[in-house]
Write a structure and sequence with these properties.
- By secondary structure, the protein is α/β, with parallel strands linked by helices.
- The chain has two helices and seven strands.
- Strands 1, 2, 3, 4, 5, 6 and 7 form a seven-stranded mixed sheet that branches.
- A hairpin with a 2-residue loop joins strand 3 and strand 4.
- The radius of gyration is 14 Å and the shape is globular.
C-alpha cells in the first residue's frame, strides 16, 4: 500500500484539499512545504503529542501545523497534518505560542 497524506484545514488554512496518495506525490508535497519554511522564519520541532511522536512547524512565536505519523512496521503509512487553527489552540497555549492564522482564511 502507498503512503497517504491528509490535511485537516477546516477551510481555515491553506492545505491539500484531498488526500495525497503515493510516495512520489507525498514527498513532492512535503518538499514543497519544507522549501517555503525558511522564508517564513519557521522550522520543525519533534515532540510527543498524546504519547506519540509528532512534528510541529513553528516560529519563535507561532504554531503553524502539527504532523503525526502512522507506521506500518518500518514504513510510514499515513501522514496526518493539522492546519485548522481552531484545533491547534490547545497545543499552542501549552507551548506558549499563538496559532498562525492566515489572512482571509481564519
Amino acid at each position: 500500500d502507498d503512503v497517504v497524506a491528509r490535511a485537516d484545514h477546516g477551510g481555515k488554512a491553506s492545505a491539500a484539499r484531498k488526500p495525497l496518495v503515493g510516495a512520489d506525490t507525498v514527498s513532492k508535497f512535503i518538499h514543497g512545504l519544507l522549501s517555503k519554511m525558511p522564508s517564513w522564519g519557521a522550522w520543525l520541532q519533534t515532540l510527543d503529542i498524546n504519547g506519540e511522536p509528532a512534528t510541529i512547524a513553528r516560529t519563535d512565536a507561532l504554531l503553524i501545523s502539527v504532523l503525526t505519523f502512522v507506521l506500518d512496521g518500518e514504513r510510514v503509512a499515513e501522514i496526518n497534518m493539522v492546519r485548522n487553527p481552531d484545533k491547534l489552540e490547545h497545543l499552542a497555549a501549552h507551548l506558549g505560542l499563538a496559532v498562525y492564522r492566515e489572512p482571509g482564511l481564519a
